[in-house]
Structure formats: structure tokens, C-alpha cells
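Predict the holo structure. Ligand: S-adenosylmethionine.
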Amino acid sequence: MTHDGSDGPLQYSSQAGIERFERAAANSVPGREHAMRMAAALLAASVPPGGSVLSVGTGTGPDLSLLASIRPDWKLTGVDPSAPMIEVARNRLAQDGFSGRCRLLVGTADELPAEPVFDGASCLMVLPVLPDNGAKGALLASIAARLKPGARLVFTSPYTLDEQVEMGTAWRWFARGMGETDAGIEILAAQVRRDIHFTSEARLMELAAEAGFHPPQRFYQALWFGGWFAEKQ
Ligand SMILES: C[S@@+](CC[C@H](N)C(=O)[O-])C[C@H]1O[C@@H](n2cnc3c(N)ncnc32)[C@H](O)[C@@H]1O
């Protein structure tokens, strides 16, 4: 385990590490909760009644719980390769009363049958933990293979802005304003350097097109974080 409680790229196996992740995510991603709510709304606007929705890299399950709460008619599946994160998601969904409607699996989308059965999917803050060496593209392609034609994917990721725009300093001030200590900010900054693979928006659009999506539309931008939705071709 690393000094920040993670076992690798933003994966956690200890309760303390997971709590630290939850706090850090809330304190360092401006508008995170509203981005999740907007992602859920964008799915609600496109997924038919009774539809099936997949949350890829669901982590501790915040978006699954939100999706379950706004659309009681949906069947939900969450996948994440981190067993401890899935365990927290399982407890969260049980506490929120949604266990019966949510299937949780330890693994990646690749472990689901490669059949286009889902009416929508979310993939929140997962692309950034994968390098752009084929891994980001493979993730998007594995989601596309499981979506029906025309089904919507919503995804969020930090991304590089125009080279002239420096966001790191503002981001540190944001986290400080949210209550992070200087030491906490240094841990976060080290995690970003170690675990986050930044790409430009143009590259994300290219990867989505290569995976078989129509051109994505951006619905969210907060400092260096963005969110997009795209329909499968
Ligand atoms: C930054 S967390 C985001 C979790 C959650 N979506 C959220 O927004 O709170 C990134 C998650 O991606 C998961 N992950 C890493 N590689 C993955 C892959 N190839 N497929 C799916 N999930 C992956 C990690 O286990 C981790 O839970």
C-alpha cells in the first residue's frame, strides 16, 4: 500500500484508504456531485422505461445509487476491478435500499458478455486512471460493444486545457477552500502526478470516435474536469 492509502491507480483495499478517496474526491473535483446528477439526468433523458444501465468503474457506487434513486424502473449493473470498492458500493446500495435492483461485479466491462444489451452507460472518472497506450481506447470499445445502437454513454475525466491555461494552482486553492490541509493537498497532487493520465479533449473525442461513438458533446466543465455524452453509432 502507498502512503496515500491506495494500492495503485486510485484503487483502495483498506477502509481508511477508501474514506480518504471519498473525501479527496469530494474536495478536489469541483462540482462532482452535480456532474454525477447531470450524468444521471442525461441518461434519464435517453434510456427507455425499464431499461438496463451499466456503470463502468463504479467505485464505491455513488452514481449507481443516484441512478437507482431517480429511475426506480431501471435495471442497473456496476463493474469495478477493485473488490474492496465493490464491497463499499454493495453496502451503500443496501443502506439506500437498492440492492435488489443493482447487480455488482468485480471486474471490468470485458468480463460481461460482449452483447449489445445495455440502453445506457456511465463511466465517471475512470478514463483518467488508464494510460493512452491502447487502454483508454479499449475501455471505450468494451463499453460500446455492450451498448445497443443509439444508446448513450456519459463519461467524465480531467483533461488538458489550452497550453496557456494553468489550472494546477487554482485547483490547489479550490481544494484548500474545501477544507484540505496543505499536507492533504500535497498527497492529492502526488496522486494526480502518479495516477492521472491527462489527455486533451480532442484526443478524448478521437478515442470515442474510434470506439464507435458519435461525436461527444461536453455537458460539464469545472477547472480541468470535464464531462461528455455520446451515442453509440
Ligand atoms: C477515480 S475512481 C472513480 C470511481 C467512481 N466512478 C466515482 O466517480 O466515484 C476510478 C475507478 O476506476 C476503476 N478502474 C480502474 N481500471 C478500470 C477498468 N479497466 N475498467 C473499469 N474500472 C476500472 C478503479 O478500480 C476505480 O474504482
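Helices lie at 15-28, 32-44, 62-70, 83-95, 135-144, 168-177, 182-195, 201-210. The radius of gyration is 17 Å.
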